[in-house]
Design a protein that fits this description.
This protein is α+β, with helices and mostly antiparallel strands and 125 residues long.
Length: 125
């Protein structure tokens, strides 16, 4: 006759695993994955993007530097290289779960507003 699981339930004590850092004690804050290069980085190093509208009212990937816009967001290193990788891989529509018109897999999700934002940040002031 075996011992029931309820009699061997144990609590996990972080002191029992001294090599593992506590989740709340992470020095850089939350970690996110860049949709361009797929590297993990702290949230503060990445730019959050969401689905918004371009100047013509069409769906577009727009920057959310404060990270306060409602809805699903994706994160990207604010570099031209990661932006170009994400565009080439069509990662924005997938990460933002944007189906577009009649579920065409993100066709019609403009990335120009984000590209313009990144270009404006790269220019010397």
């Amino acid at each position: 006759m075996g011992v029931g699981l309820s009699s061997v339930a144990r609590e996990h004590f972080s002191a029992a695993c001294p090599d593992l850092p506590a989740p709340s004690a992470e020095p850089g804050g939350p970690v996110r994955t860049c949709v361009g290069c797929r590297e993990r980085a702290t949230k503060s190093e990445l730019l959050r993007v969401t689905v918004g509208s371009d100047a013509h009212g069409h769906p577009a990937v727009v920057p959310d530097p404060q990270g306060t816009a409602p809805g699903r967001g994706a994160h990207l290193h604010p570099t031209p290289e990661c932006y170009e990788l994400a565009v080439r891989r069509r990662a924005f529509a997938r990460a933002l779960r944007f189906l577009g018109d009649q579920g065409r897999g993100g066709a019609g999700l403009a990335t120009a507003p984000l590209g313009e934002y990144l270009d404006s940040r790269a220019e010397p002031t």
